[in-house]
What does this fold into?
Amino acid sequence: LINSKKSKSSNAYIEFEDEEIIKIKEQCTTLVYKVCNRLITLFTCADKELFDSTLTTKERKSQLTTDDKEPKLVKDYSNPDSYGFIPQNANALSTLYYALRIKETVAKELRNISSLESYWSNSDTVVETLSATYKKMNECLISGILAVLVSDFRRIHSIENWAISTTYPGSTNMPLFILRFYEAFLPKLNQVVFNINTASSTVTVDGKSKNSIIPKYPSEITLKSVQTQFVHSLKVLLDNLLNNVLASSASDKQRQDLFFLRTISNVDVLKSKVFVQIFSTYDNYFKSSLSQSSDDIYATLDDIKITLFERYIAVYKPCLLYTSDAADDMQCV
It folds into this structure.
């Protein structure tokens, strides 16, 4: 505790002149601004930018000549590499797990700082800075998680082994894997998007109740962005499954029947069972009505099924034409 010499408080460990207290408050306020600035830098920088931000002024000057020669790249926020706080080769579930821990830790510390209003020289500005820092951090965590999710689904074909499923006869284990993945993913994503466990409606400052810097509910823009990226992840998933069966059948022609027929069965299961459950789970956790507005996903599934049938029939079309021609020749004889 610090206190003015004029107050004669028995609780004070050290007593300062009023001018010294003002200076201490200014320094504490500056420290809060610098900490918030560093946090924003950490969560908004890509790998290269994050490294550059740790350089001293002298080191930055020594790199100016080199950096000026390099073209400035436009950051792609759908690419996990745009998020320096996400390690290379991270997957969606591990990123989600650690993002949740980061969020809870930072939220706790920001709440603690927000309760020290007596140490600041400009409390209103500090509160706004703390709130803006938390909001920006959480936006970056959400965007980073969803970017990794989409990246994972671009490679999901690598886990397909074409073994028959015991849960959905006729299909492979892929539909069940997708269902179980989202059942694990969506509840944790809900905890990152919403702040039910990390926020309170008010905080106590100097015995007075004030609004918390951490809101319980995200903005409509954030929820819309999450839904857009979620639907996009499903479309990327479906594109990858289609490309996988086409590539597999081209490289292993003797097993074309297996690849096509089991993928067609997978599409049927995804449409009739798996996606229905996934949309219901999403609606439950994000208070949406995606189950009633997902026609484009089901249309994509229908298009994929038609494409698979067309490609599958095309494989046997020459044989069918040859058989038909042979039958005509036999009739002529």
Remarks:
- Residues 11 and 184 are 51 Å apart (CA to CA).
- The longest strand covers residues 202-205.
